[in-house]
Write a structure and sequence with these properties.
alpha+beta; binds zinc ion; 2 strands; two-stranded antiparallel ribbon
Length: 101
């Protein structure tokens, strides 16, 4: 259960960043680490690939410093899911954290 919730948060976080720029697994691992998540390549890469299978991300291969790297960009569907999730997250935050205004 906890793992599913965390994967959900990570997925949203990935969508958020992929909506700003093309991301890589390495970038997301560092980014999530900064937010206090411990993520291994064994978690992040299957998650990215799964999100691509779901049509939320689209990957392209690029050459960087002579190495092939896979970058991910958000799709139209991903943007829809992100926008929808933002509303839900906002509602949820207001409810579980309380409206402190
Ligand atoms: Zn972030």
């Amino acid at each position: 259960m906890m793992r599913r919730i965390i994967l959900g948060f990570m997925g949203l976080h990935i969508l958020h960043h992929a909506s700003k720029e093309a991301i890589t697994g390495t970038f997301m691992m560092k980014e999530l680490e900064n937010h206090g998540y411990k993520v291994s390549p064994g978690t992040i890469y299957p998650l990215l690939q799964n999100m691509e299978k779901l049509g939320l991300l689209k990957s392209t291969w690029k050459i960087k410093d002579g190495r092939r790297i896979r970058t991910y960009q958000i799709t139209q569907e991903g943007i829809k899911v992100l926008e929808e999730s933002k509303k839900k997250v906002k509602e949820l935050c207001m409810e579980i954290l309380g409206d402190t205004k």
